[in-house]
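I am writing to request your help with a piece of structural work I have in hand. I am sending you one protein, given as its amino acid sequence and as whole-number tokens for its backbone shapes. Kindly check, if you would, that the fold set down in the tokens agrees with what the sequence suggests. You will find the record immediately after this paragraph:
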Amino acid sequence: MAVRSISDRRTSLVKGAGAFVLALFCVLGIALMQRAGWLDGVNVGLMEAAGRARDGAVGQNLTPLIRLASALGGTAGRLLLLALSLGSLFWAGRRRCALWLMAMMAGGTALNLILKQIFAAPRPDLLPHLDSVHTYSFPSGHAAGNMMFFGALALLVGRRVGFWAAAAMIALIGVSRVWLGVHWPSDVTAGWIEGLGWLALCRVWLPARRGQE
């Protein structure tokens, strides 16, 4: 039984590491295509569509809500949600899950900062920025960080409704960055892929839920 358990863990580690490496290659590919201008048509087209939408009567009413969603997914908002989640996990006696979540988010945040420095991509200037930004653009920290955070919460909950709720939040926050003019769609896509790859790797060490071996 122990031998099979060790073998299963090794297999999971290989799969997780493979998914992470594949994600990094995808992020690199998107960065190279973006730098070569191959994604200009998609990026400019989608951002111009976002600009027209936000300038419309309905869009002007939606923008405050979208800015709120973006702020919720920003560094300060995510730290607040993380603190609340950690407190809930500790209170529920799921100490190992809380430690896993904390370590996963710390490592994922560091990974995104490193990638931003490597690619050093400027922010788009096609639309006026509706959010204050001071870091590089690629890959999107909002997209990556919230893929990691809400994805991790969905894994900890382990229910279908949790995954649907996580997907909705991840999509909303990612789209908000294009709507606010501070990220190209390819920045957001790369951030999602980065976050998903990191989550796949860290899932290997996800503590088992009660009743599981």
